[in-house]
Design a protein that fits this description.
This protein has 257 residues and is α/β, with parallel strands linked by helices. Helix content is 46%, strand content 14%. Bound molecules: nicotinamide-adenine-dinucleotide.
C-alpha cells in the first residue's frame, strides 16, 4: 500500500495515537504534517526524525485545536491536504453536576468542533485534487457511554454523527469520511487517568488496568498506536474506496458486548 505523493495532516500528533498514525502514514510513503498546540524544538525535531526514518517530507505546524480559526489556518499552512486525520483530543472525568464548565467547553472544542473546522477547510483542497480521505479518531465512547465522561461522550458521539453527514455530502466524489473508534490504548491520555482511579478505588495500578480500564475490553489487552496507524492507512487505501460514513471499532470486542 503506497500513499506516496499524498500529504496527510494529523491533528494532535506529537504524542500517543496521532504520532503512531503519523509514523504509519510516513511508513506508507505519505508526506506528513504533525501538529499540536506547543511549538518546541522537540516538536520540530520529531518531524525531522520521521522525515529521516521514512524518507518523506515531514513538517510540524503549531495550532491550537480549541480555536476554530487556528484549525482552519493549520489546513491553509499545510498547503496540500489529501488526507486529514482529526485526532487531537483531551479528557476530563467528573460527575455531570460537578463537571467544570471550562473543561466541558475545552473538550467540546478540541474533540469535536475542531473536526468541523478542519474538514470545512480541507474539503475544497480535496475537491480540487479530485481525491481525499478523512479519518476522524472518535472512540468506543462515540458509540456507547460511561459515567463521569459526559463531555467526552457527547463530543465523540458528535464526531460520529458529523462523519456520517460529511460522508453523505461527499458520497458521489472520490472522497471518503470515516471514524475509527478505539477502545483503550495506553497513551499519555489514559496514563493520566490511572492515579486518580487508583485513589478513587484504593487499587494498585495493575488492578486499575485490569479491573477498571480493561474491564469492558473483552480482549483484556490495550490496542496499540501501531494498530490504529495501520487501520488508518487501510482507510486511505484503494481497497477502502467504497467505505464511507462508517465507524471502524478497534476495541478488543468492547462494543460487541
Ligand atoms: P494523547 O494525550 O497522547 O494525545 C493527544 C494529542 O492531542 C497530543 O498530541 C496533544 O498534544 C494534542 N492536543 C491536545 N490538546 C490540543 C490542542 N488544543 N490543540 C492541538 N493539539 C492538542 O492522547 P491519545 O490517547 O493519543 O488520544 C488521541 C485521540 O484518540 C483523542 O482524540 C482521544 O480522544 C482518542 N482516543 C484515545 C483512546 C485511548 O485509549 N488512548 C481511546 C479512544 C479514543
Amino acid at each position: 500500500m503506497s500513499l506516496q505523493g499524498k500529504t496527510a495532516v494529523i491533528t494532535g500528533s506529537n504524542s500517543g495515537i496521532g504520532l503512531g498514525i503519523a509514523r504509519e502514514m510516513a511508513r506508507a510513503g505519505a508526506d506528513v504534517v504533525l501538529n499540536s498546540y506547543t511549538d518546541s524544538d522537540e516538536d520540530h525535531a520529531l518531524a525531522a526524525s520521521i522525515a529521516e526514518e521514512f524518507g518523506v517530507s515531514a513538517r510540524y505546524i503549531s495550532a491550537d485545536m480549541s480555536n476554530g480559526e487556528a484549525c482552519r489556518e493549520l489546513i491553509t499552512k499545510a498547503g496540500d491536504c489529501d488526507i486529514l486525520i482529526n485526532n487531537a483530543g483531551i479528557q476530563h472525568v467528573a460527575p455531570v453536576d460537578q463537571f467544570p464548565t471550562g473543561k466541558w467547553d475545552a473538550i467540546i472544542a478540541i474533540n469535536m468542533n475542531s473536526n468541523f473546522h478542519t474538514m470545512a477547510a480541507a474539503l475544497p483542497k480535496m475537491r480540487e485534487k479530485g481525491w481525499g480521505r478523512i479519518v476522524n479518531i472518535a472512540s468506543a465512547h462515540g458509540l456507547t457511554a460511561s459515567p463521569y465522561k459526559a463531555a467526552y461522550v457527547a463530543a465523540k458521539h458528535g464526531v460520529v454523527g458529523m462523519t456520517k453527514t460529511v460522508a453523505l455530502e461527499t458520497a458521489e466524489e472520490p472522497i471518503t469520511c470515516n471514524a475509527i473508534c478505539p477502545g483503550y490504548v495506553l497513551t499519555p491520555l489514559v496514563e493520566a487517568q490511572i492515579p486518580d482511579t487508583m485513589k478513587e478505588y484504593n487499587m494498585s495500578r495493575e488492578d486499575v488496568v485490569k479491573n477498571v480500564l480493561l474491564k469492558r475490553q473483552p480482549s483484556k489487552e490495550f490496542a496499540t498506536v501501531e494498530q490504529l496507524g495501520g487501520t488508518t492507512v487501510f482507510l486511505c487505501s484503494d481497497a477502502a474506496a467504497q467505505i464511507t460514513g462508517t465507524t471502524l471499532s478497534v476495541d478488543g470486542g468492547w462494543t460487541a458486548l
